[in-house]
Amino acid sequence: MTVRLVREPIDVAALQATSPADGALCLFVGVVRDHNGGRPVRRLEYEAYEEMALPLMEKIGADCRERWRVTDVRIVHRLGPLAIGEASVAVAIASSHRREAFEACRYAIDTLKATVPIWKKEFYADGDAAFVEPGLLK
């Protein structure tokens, strides 16, 4: 299991490794889009309470391993400034079968967004900036 908070671009290719026992790899990559709520977005910045975020991310990974027959869990979230099109978060789940991989991946990203103290600040085309409410991080 790997969980990380990084300040450099996420190496998505490195998250795709599988073992001979794996028949499925479910990979979710969240990328910075150029709009939100009808407003043009120019860039984002992510902040985290790292001492709390990492243990919670580890718990999500452990929960995935307990609930589904998965062989590996990898969760990486980017911090700092990000440009449009850059990966902000990646979740990779390896398993013998696709159902477990899909279900665990969905659980991991949804739980991360709902519970881990990571905050997104959007910078808009009009020069305004605002933190996005956690409930809107979907």
Q: What would you give as the CATH superfamily? A: Molybdopterin biosynthesis MoaE subunit
* Class inferred from helices and paired strands: alpha+beta
- Sheet-strand content, in percent, reads 35-45%
CATH class: Alpha Beta
> Main sheet?
5 strands, antiparallel
CATH fold-level topology: Aldehyde Oxidoreductase, domain 3
Q: DSSP helix count? A: 2
- The average pLDDT is 95
Question: Which spans have pLDDT < 50 for at least 5 consecutive residues?
Answer: none
Structurally, the number of domains stands at 1
SSE order, one letter for each helix or strand: EEEEHEEEHEE
Helix content: 25-40%
Using DSSP, what is the number of strands? 9
Q: If classified by CATH, what would the architecture be? A: Alpha-Beta Complex
Task: Give a written overview of the molecule.
There is one protein chain. The protein has 138 residues and is α+β, with helices and mostly antiparallel strands. It has one domain (2-125): Molybdopterin biosynthesis MoaE subunit (Aldehyde Oxidoreductase, domain 3, Alpha-Beta Complex), CATH 3.90.1170.40. The chain has 2 helices and 9 strands, in the order E-E-E-E-H-E-E-E-H-E-E. The strands form 2 sheets. Strands 3, 4, 6, 8 and 9 form a 5-stranded antiparallel β-sheet that branches. The protein has a 4-stranded mixed β-sheet with strand order 1-5-7-2, covered by helices on one side. The radius of gyration is 15 Å and the shape is elongated. The protein starts with a strand and ends in a 7-residue tail after the last strand. The mean pLDDT is 95.
